[in-house]
Amino acid sequence: MELELLGFALAGCFLGIVTGLFPGLHANSIALLALALPGQKGLPLIIFIACMATVHTFVDFVPSILLGAPNEDTFLAVLPGHKLLLKGEGLTAVRLTVAGGLFAGLASLAAGPFLVLLAEKSQGFLSSLIPFALFAILAAMAFDERGWKKVLALTVILLSGLLGLLALKSNLPLQQPLFCLATGFFGASTLVDSIARGTSLGEQKNTKFSVSGKNVLGKSLLALGAAGFVSLMPSVGASQATFVVRKIVGRIKARNYLMLLGGVNTATMILSFFVLFSIGKARTGAAVAINQVAPFGTEQLLFVSGACLFAIGFAAIATDLLAGWLMKIVHLINYRKVNFVVLCLVSLMVFWFSGLLGLAFYGIAALIGLASLGMGIKRANSMAFLMVPTMLYYFGFV
Fold first, then answer.
1. CA nearest neighbour of 138 among 378, 394, 359
2. Minimal CA–CA distance to 298: which of 319, 322, 273?
3. What band does 99 get if pLDDT is binned at 50, 70 and 90?
């Protein structure tokens, strides 16, 4: 049994590397799709999903920083990461996110039991607070844009919210709606944009990396606090958590910001498993998938915590080695061709699992994501496809 679980943990870790390297392949989507595949279920599959999702939160910064190809959790890393990239310090940028993810991940495992108690005692209060909090976050995201882009952001929020309502709350026979929409908004749009731009990169240098313990500890605790807050909020992800932190603390240096992003990304994922255990609510796609595999009790939480600890160590080492290797050869890779192959694969997966209707929703979501990129506004606004239906549900309208 132990060897079987270790095998599933390693398989999840290696698949997490694959999903992290290609923005169109999101670990949450793959986790949901794993439920539809025949084969092993129960605890081994739970561990597989937890490891894959945790490793993904580390590796997905590599294409985001190296090639400007982010997903909804890492797009904020593009600008500060690009600044270091232009100086030939792309590897340093990746290592900063790894440091944040490593320490915030460990801190989230230690703080998880306290989040369980908090979630259980505040569940009633949170239910009344959730719709107002989601509305405030959506409004803040829209008005964070400059000038006329505020109107464009509101338009994206309305269109995304409407698409989410049709996919998630109507009686349309749409299979795997989360996969279709998330992959369209943040996967296909990224891949098409990267193909159109012909993303490439010059050679990078391997500089000595060091961070002060006090600095990484401070950013890890800040990331933990932000992740804890959004872990209790449905349909809110790592990008929204970092947005809230930035609004509260003000300007943050590029290097510190990358550590914060890495920490929030990993801590949000891990804490979602503790929230699933405490109040039975799934806040991430990985948690949704795990919740459908088997009842998530104390035994499952302990195994998942151990799996996350294993995955954190694996991911920190693997991401550093992988980024160092890619920095040496990235200027030789035809990333346009790679992205085209991935785009075709993802589109075929949508058609296979959701048919023509799913392909239609996927295509519309991709167009909205591309429009956001073209207009220069944040694609995080597209998270309204989850936030609006959730907000209306808690208000009692749907």
1. 378
2. 273
3. very high
